[in-house]
Amino acid sequence: MFEGEARGGFKNKILYQKTMKNIFIISGPSGVGEDSIIKGLKKILPIEVIITTTTRDLRPGESQGNPYYFISKEEFKNGIENNEFFEYAKEYNDNYYGVTHKEIERIKNSDKIGIWKIEYKGVIYAKKMFPNIIAIFINAPLDILEKRIRNRSNVSEEYIKERLDYTREWLKNIDIYNYKVENEEGKLKDTIKKVANIIEKNYIDD
Which of 14, 134, 190, 206 has the most neighbouring CB atoms within 10 Å? Predict the structure, then answer.
């Protein structure tokens, strides 16, 4: 079992097989604009976002549940031991990220299209458990990603290097995705439309 894989895999697979059919993964490295795309999707589709739990620090403008549930590393590790996480991973910044069974239940009961924003390690696990789940990869040229990261306030060269190194690792795993969409500079609306079309094409309405 690699780090990031929840315990009780077969049981989880049976429990969530029906739920996952209308959950779509949106995934891409830092700077691709996932949050902006999801924000745009909310304006045109009945979207409910799966909220990830993380141990990273709260940033200015963020709050509990926006965009993450924030907990301590001790709380996260206790959650792992108690099988509270559907999936989890430890990322490049030494912080944990994961989605709880409780959060999956919340989405299941919402009667909306679930959007799951996760990094590639989470996608690998999700596709292992549910081969039919649709995963959409959002990308942009590496120089554009670096520019967008540099435009963030108070970022160090070490932070930028870590992000770009992780992006290079990410790009080695793009074959796990069903669709690939490039978020070109200045064409966010076009990107949102392309992703919306993919979701509408694959959405199963009971």
Answer: 134
